[in-house]
Amino acid sequence: MQKLSSAQLLESLEWRYATKKFDPSKKIDVSTWNTLEKVLMLTPSSYGLQPWKFIIVESKELKEKLQTASWNQAQVTDCSHHVVFVIKEKMDEEHITKFIEQTAKIRGQDVSTLEGYKKMMIGDLVKGPRSEVISEWAARQAYIALGNFMTAAATLGVDTCPFEGIEPQKYDDILGLTGTGWKTVCACPAGYRAVDDKYAEALKVRFDAKDLIIHK
Ligand SMILES: Cc1cc2nc3c(=O)[nH]c(=O)nc-3n(C[C@H](O)[C@H](O)[C@H](O)COP(=O)(O)O)c2cc1C
User: Fold this and answer.
1) 17 Cα nearest atom in ligand 1
2) I need a surface site. Which of 33, 91, 104, 121 has the fewest CB within 10 A?
3) CA-only gyration radius of the chain, Å
4) Is position 167 within any domain?
5) Average pLDDT, the chain
């Protein structure tokens, strides 16, 4: 694996900012976008269960509808690709079985060797106390994907803006998710900053390292 230098990594992370104004004329090219889809898919999740879907919205009509459910934030319509992070509302045996079968297929194992792992996951997430708070669990996984996506995008020179300023129920209605067992948690427009987005030059506001990083 080729490593980025520390300077390159930090340069990307300093360059990234929550983009307020995208240039609507700039599209992310197919190859770069395919890489970013892979990034989403490579995000780690608890047990590896991937309780998510990533809905990629490029349609102008759909973006306009979603903007009305996003505090009218213009990034939705001006971006190149609007990513909606969707989670499974409840974990069920069907999803876990699908994951076990996929694991067995990819790793050339017999499903019977994964029976204990399957039972453990079902006991924890489907039948255990955590099943009561499973959508918060799933939302946490989705936020890992969001972070992964933004960092990777920045290293490729793609701008993003994490979005919680949305009405998830309206997103679900617009995207046809209501009643399917899947729901929206957050979103992230991606594209290229407008040259006159003044926020690009704003200094980053972070607490001092001594308040955030504790060495023991
Ligand atoms: C989970 C999350 C939700 C956010 N929601 C919005 C949003 O709806 N609209 C927006 O313009 N910025 C949003 N932000 C951007 C933050 O305000 C921004 O990341 C923060 O001020 C730090 O600035 P920086 O990202 O430019 O370094 C959100 C950030 C996070 C992490």
Assistant:
1) 26
2) 104
3) 19
4) yes
5) 98
80: domain CATH number is 3.40.109.10
| pLDDT tens digits, one per residue of 123-140 | 999 999 999 999 999 999
Domains: count for the chain = 1
Question: How many residues would you count in the chain?
Answer: 216
Q: Is residue 177 part of a domain?
A: yes
pLDDT digits (tens, 9 = 90+) for 5-36: 999 999 999 999 999 999 999 999 999 999 99
Q: From CA 19, how far away is CA 75, in angstroms rounded?
A: 8
Residues 6+ apart with CB under 8 A from 1: none
Contact, 124 vs 130, CB < 8 A? yes
> What residue's CA is closest to ligand 1, atom 10?
163
Judge whether 49 lies within some domain: yes
Ligand 1, atom 14, residue with closest C-alpha: 162
Domain encompassing residue 178 = 17-89+135-195
Q: With beta carbons less than 8 A apart as the criterion, state whether 183 and 168 touch.
A: yes
**Do residues 110 and 99 make contact, with C-beta atoms less than 8 angstroms apart?**
no
Strands of the 182-191 sheet, one edge to the other: 52-57, 81-88, 182-191, 159-160
Q: How far is CA 17 from the centre of its chain?
A: 16
Contact 191, 23 (CB under 8 A): yes
163 CA from centroid of ligand 1 (Å): 7
Provide the 10 A C-beta neighbour count for residue 86: 25
